[in-house]
Amino acid sequence: MIFERVVRPGLFRLGGGDAETAHEWTLRRLAALSGRPAALAALRSAYAVAAPRRAFGLDFPNPVGLAAGMDKNGVALPAWPAMGFGFVEVGTVTAHAQPGNPRPRLFRLPESTAVINRMGFNNDGAEALALRLAGSRPLGVPLGISLGKSKVTPLDQAVEDYLTSYRALRGHGDYFAVNVSSPNTPGLRELQDREHLDALLAALVGEKPVLVKIAPDLTEPAIAELLRVCLDRGAAGVIATNTTLGRDGLTGSDVSRAGEAGGLSGRPLTGRTRDVVAFVHRETGGALPVVGVGGIVDPDDAKRLFDAGASLVQLYTGFIYRGPGLVRAVARSARR
Ligand SMILES: Cc1cc2nc3c(=O)[nH]c(=O)nc-3n(C[C@H](O)[C@H](O)[C@H](O)COP(=O)(O)O)c2cc1C
């Protein structure tokens, strides 16, 4: 409640209401806090909830993770478990450092509890992340690393690009997420096709669990084909889903923002995510663990994803609107 009444209004006013200014300010504050053990301990005692799970060979203190894209460069790592997250996914990082798309590129749609972003994988590059992680203390919760394709790399050299990142980072992540579903890198989603994905997984699957993050805009036959590749190549699981190119579910004055290019997340994605999670679970007979992400704005949304077969869940947009209280509430509702 304090978050929604006091913290959020302040954050949403920063930078004249520019969403990325608020994001940068928050990350700076969390990075500073990450070096203060007493502050971390205070947060932990307020937010950490035990609801242990085991998935793809890893132990999770609770099944609620931070979704990729929030802390792309891993600058505030200790803050996330202190705010109750049971795992953290950093990235998406690319082999080459890159600036992403021109600003503004992040837009809040508050009446719809949604966000549109076209960040375009702005990140310091895989090498920089590896250096940062090499200098960090162990996180205490599983760390996932999301890998994407550099914008300058043509699609037919994508495998080598992902491999470059993977080689730099393989000693630092507990699992790797292959992001082939961001709508903001031209051509990237084609890597979800059978041949591309087969080559990518053949190169990456090995010592660490590799999960494939999929788009909510795929048809069921396309998802079924992708799942066969994942099973054949030994992927450890699927992360469903990334942001959507669809614009259903916007309400009030947010409707006027529908023309903004980029991926939509938050409440408009809740139903579609549930359908995709249920489909993946059904289609694989539960053989492939699913991380459910998309439109979790209250604990019931997460409960429905668990009921649909998700082993774990992740939050992004819900965390922007509800803060760490949402992490705690979802983790509590997952206790059994
Ligand atoms: C600003 C922003 C940046 C994102 N960046 C990434 C990213 O780098 N890699 C990725 O796999 N997903 C990224 N995502 C997608 C989220 O991880 C998540 O899949 C999606 O937003 C749906 O979850 P939500 O409705 O809880 O936000 C991003 C989302 C937002 C809003």
Q: Topology, pairings included?
A:
Elements: H1 2-17, H2 19-33, H3 37-47, E1 53-55, E2 58-60, E3 64-66, H4 79-82, E4 87-93, E5 106-109, E6 114-117, H5 126-134, E7 143-147, H6 158-169, E8 175-179, H7 194-204, E9 210-214, H8 220-233, E10 237-240, E11 263-266, H9 270-283, E12 290-293, H10 299-307, E13 312-315, H11 317-322, H12 324-333
Parallel strand pairs: 3-4, 3-13, 4-7, 7-8, 8-9, 9-10, 10-12, 12-13
Antiparallel strand pairs: 1-2, 5-6, 6-11
The structure holds flavin mononucleotide (FMN).
Architecture overview:
This protein has 336 residues and is α/β, with parallel strands linked by helices. It has a single domain, classed as Aldolase class I (TIM Barrel, Alpha-Beta Barrel). The chain contains 12 helices and 13 strands. It has helices at 2-17, 19-33, 37-47, 79-82, 126-134, 158-169, 194-204, 220-233, 270-283, 299-307, 317-322, 324-333, and strands at residues 53-55, 58-60, 64-66, 87-93, 106-109, 114-117, 143-147, 175-179, 210-214, 237-240, 263-266, 290-293, 312-315. The strands form 3 sheets. The chain has an 8-stranded parallel β-barrel with strand order 3-4-7-8-9-10-12-13, surrounded by 5 helices. Helix 7 links the parallel strand 8 and strand 9 (210-214). The longest helix is centred in the N-terminal third of the chain and has 16 residues, at 2-17. The protein is globular. The model has no long low-confidence stretch (mean pLDDT 96). The structure holds flavin mononucleotide (FMN). Flavin mononucleotide binds at residues 67-69, 72, 92, 106, 115, 117, 119, 146, 179, 182, 213, 242-243, 265-266, 269, 293-296, 315-318.
